[in-house]
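Table S2 (continued). Query chain:
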Amino acid sequence: MSSDYVPSIIQIDIPTFSEKYVNNQTETFYQLIVSDTYSNKKWTLEKSFDDCAALESDLAALLPNTPSIEGKSLFKVSAYGELNKRQFALIDFMNQCLVRKDIVSNRCFSDFIDLERNSPELLYNAPLTLTSFEDLPLGVTDFIYREKEQMLFVICSDMN
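Corresponding output:
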């Protein structure tokens, strides 16, 4: 399947879907084949449509103008034609996410495609929060350490 999007180092294809019996009901899982063209690695993930919708809502809460998944419905979809439409909607959603560096570098997205375990060399924005102070009146809220650059960031805020 050819894509109209700008190529990314990470590519995602969703060639098939299958139904599995989970929690006493059938659920549709989409097979995501994630390719890292930088190091020529490939891995396969199985995600449900609800997993992808959760990713969409997490990204929308963190970033502006995020892509959306077309084809959401209130009821469970089980007809082959509708599942096939969802498959193409998910491919389109993933391609729209991959062309945006702010989404690809986001922790939610990298966790969703399991980037840290399969291709850790592509994690270029992985700060480590050392501690958080929520009730500190001085305005210091977070300490973030970036090991690669050996930099410590102290994040402050003034609520006045």
